[in-house]
Amino acid sequence: MNFFEHQRQAKKNTSYLVFLFFIAVVGIVFMTNFVGWVVIELIKADSNRGIKPIFEAPPSKDYDLYLAITGATLLVILLSALFKKIQLGGKGRGIARYMGGTEAHLIKHKPHVKRALNVVEEMAIAAGMTPPPLYILTSEKSINAFAAGLTPQTSVIAVSQGCLENLTRDELQGVVAHEISHILNGDTRLNVQLLGYLAGLVTIGVMGRTVFRMVGRSRSRSSRDSGGALFLILFVGLSLWIVGSVGVFVGRMIRSAVSRQREFLADASAVQFTRYPAGIAGALAKIGQNSSVLNFAGAEEVSHMCFENPLKASAFSLNATHPPLKERIARIDKRFLEPGFLKTVLHKPEVSEIQKPTPKKNISAKDVINAIGEPTPENLASVSVMMNSLLPEISENRSETLQAQAIALALLNLSGDSSEGHAVVETYRSDELVAEFSQRRLELLRMERKNVLPALHHCIPILREMELPEKQIFLKTCEYMVKADSEVDLNEVSLYFLIEMHLIENSFRAERNNRSLVQSQQSVGYLISALCLHGNENTNKARWVFTETMKTLGLNVSFANEVHQMSLRSFRDLLQILAELKPQDKEKLFEAMLRTVEFDGEINANEMEFLKATCECMGIPIPYSI
Predict the structure, then answer these.
(1) Burial class of residue 354 (count of CB atoms within 10 Å of its CB; 0-12, 13-18, 19+)
(2) Is 100 helix (H, G, I), strand (E, B) or coil?
(3) More confident residue, 442 or 55
């Protein structure tokens, strides 16, 4: 499956999850009503025997009680799910902190943390995405990891302290590649939604268990007259506990149905990414020798998100969230099941020993689509070389934030007038930043254009850690930098929105991917017009290409001559709309975008930069080496 097919499958799985949740809720409502019926019949039986009932039974034809039970059950389930969603915020950071994670950049001076940060950055840039924040589960000595977040820009990767201490760099790469695959394929969104749904199903059982235990403890201290009332309450508590246990079992079945196959796919993607099976197979083998069990009290509810099962082994494999460990290893490399084989594994050769990737010429649209979400070792090797020697260095001896700000502002001014860029920085920022900006701009002008986007990806993790007021001031400076020229430069605009997307929450956040091309045809028309005019002085030819592209999409939209006069707000709205396209329509649009930029027989570095930055804002990561 290609990237877009994975996205479609994730959307189907979400619908499947909602359906299963609905069935489970209906079952729980039916069982709670059954408990209510039994209680009413017991009260009636006492009345018929001449025993004064503890509660008055409702008339046999009065269904108000059952409606009340149904409403109360639904309210408890939905409020519990909503509370969990609000508690975690749907963001990976909230989930990582909930599990006791510490932001890696705060402790990067510690052994192995810097290595982990470098691995995440390399692999994310190779995959064509901005490096997600890394969290360290410092209190967890076992080997485990997870990725979480509703969207790629709100996702994080977390690894346990045991991962850092026990895994080699190659093995850590395998684990990180596995988690990045979950982010790219939309699995993390599904996993976060599962947290809320399962919290709702479990709550009924928690309430019943609490009532049962409280009443059980108070029975011995209660008067004889209240024995009947206590018995009924005890019965209700026990019944709800049982009903809730059924909900827990169904929840585990839902988790198992959704997540097990995704683990196999993520393992396969990790092998394809690194082309070094010993990496992820070695990590799994070390889990077999060590452990993946987490000490975190809520490990049960997050078990489906983890790299390997964080719970103690259970005799019931039917509702396991992960495939058997030996089966996962066997699918990658059976030799790792042999005793002692792990010690004989040689490390992967250094980047300098890897054959340098040869640039592909005349790459087809189909090749690009198949490469999205499936980065190769060549991508990783290219990024490793680039990060070690080609990207601007950010020194730890000076303010990293200042350096990252200067580099980002310089990237937004590469095509503009240097005096205008200096004027913007001098007006809105400090003298120290002005000097850094001047130095970095000269440095970046010597860099190849294809490395502009990776250079920005290199800075964003540092910029992301600024406080909100500082982010807002910096973004305003970036906006003035883009507007400093008399004419809007589309590359600068796309880079600006990429910065905004990662600094401001909810920017280009596609809560629902349900828009069609027809519903979004005005935005599609403006984007294709921009691509046709990008670097092309022949307006008539641009119009012809636009018309042919619209025919392939089946849309009837006019060519937009004024695209270079669009405001930043209009361009932001355009990207937001296109980010919410259905996966199948997003694939059609992406194919059309590729055909548009290659109509003249080649795609230059400027066009590819604009295409990659725009696509990342739309949720389409294009690997570095494309």
Answers:
(1) middle
(2) coil
(3) 442
3-state helix/strand/coil string of 350-376: CHHHCCCCCCCCCCCHHHHHHHCCCCC
- Asked if residues 117 and 108 have their Cβ atoms less than 8 Å apart, the reply is yes
Structure tokens belonging to residue 287: 């889990």
d(CA 118, CA 351): 14
Calculate the alpha carbon distances from 244 to 37, 206, 230, 302, 598 in Å: 18, 7, 21, 18, 58
Instruction: Give the model confidence (pLDDT) of 267-316 as tens digits.
Output: 888 887 777 888 899 999 999 888 999 999 888 888 888 999 898 866 55
The residue among 8 and 187 whose pLDDT is bigger is: 187
Q: In this structure, what is the dihedral angle of CA atoms 400, 405, 411, 416, given to the nearest 10 degrees? A: -140
User: In this model, does residue 357 exceed pLDDT 50?
Assistant: no
Beta bridge partners of 135: 103, 158
How many CB atoms sit inside 10 A of residue 64's CB? Answer: 9
* Active-site entry in 121, 122, 140, 179: 179
Amino acid code (one letter) for 432: E
Give the tokens for residue 162: 């045991």
The model's confidence at residue 347, banded by pLDDT at 50, 70 and 90, is low
Amino acid in the structure at residue 288: G
- The CA-based angle 291-293-297, given to 5 degrees, is 160
d(CA 587, CA 591): 6
What's the average model confidence in pLDDT over 125-140?
Answer: 91
Residues 6+ apart with CB under 8 A from 565: 488
pLDDT of 60 reads 47
Sign, CA torsion 484/489/494/495: negative
Task: Determine contact, residues 45/39, Cβ cutoff 8 Å.
Answer: no
Question: Tokens 């399962």 label which residue?
Answer: 198
Q: Which two tokens stand for residue 579?
A: 């980010």
Q: Residue 550 CA to chain centroid, in angstroms?
A: 32
Q: How far apart are CA 501 and CA 345, in angstroms?
A: 42
88 C-beta neighbours (distance < 10 Å), count = 21
pLDDT above 70: residue 153: yes
Cβ atoms within 10 A of the Cβ of 87, count? Answer: 13
Is the CB of residue 137 less than 8 Å from the CB of residue 295? Answer: no
pTM check: above 0.90: no
Q: Say whether 308 is catalytic.
A: no
How far apart are alpha carbons 391 and 404 in whole angstroms? 12
